[in-house]
């Protein structure tokens, strides 16, 4: 793996971590910390996804990418699953962050697998 490839993978992990940190602080930034279910979801999901990003940075693995994708999917759908979608701040924060996490995870997986869809061999199962 070249230095440019490594830098690109690091940028994906940093971007996902930044979105997770934003999600963690969103209840205070956007003023929905009184909505307990939404706030706790933001705090726990943000912390878990940030932790996965650190782990992915230290050792890129496709299974961690799958965990990122599932975390992003949860964040994206959580406002409806937790019945807090009526609050626009909660809804759009989760939709934007979840979509961003999924997009960066797909880009990272695509880069790890190579453009032709075959395994590049630089990750472990």
Task: Describe this entry's structure for a reader.
- With 125 residues, the protein is an all-alpha fold.
- It has one domain (3-113): Four Helix Bundle (Hemerythrin (Met), subunit A) (Up-down Bundle).
- The chain contains four helices and no strands.
- Helix 1 runs antiparallel to helix 4 (88-113).
Element-by-element helix/strand order: HHHH
Helix content: over 70%
Mean pLDDT: 86
Could you say what the CATH architecture is? Up-down Bundle
- Computed over alpha carbons, the radius of gyration is 15 Å
Assign an overall shape.
elongated
> Helical stretch count?
4
Q: How many domains make up the 3D coordinates?
A: 1
CATH fold category name: Four Helix Bundle (Hemerythrin (Met), subunit A)
The counted number of beta strands is: 0
Largest sheet: none
Q: Which structural class matches the secondary elements?
A: mainly alpha
CATH class: Mainly Alpha
> Into which percentage range does the β-strand content fall?
under 5%
Notable characteristics:
elongated; disordered C terminus; Four Helix Bundle (Hemerythrin (Met), subunit A); 4 helices; 125 residues; mainly alpha
Please outline what is shown here.
The protein is 77% helix and 0% strand.
Write the layout of secondary structure elements.
Layout: H1 3-29, H2 36-58, H3 62-81, H4 88-113
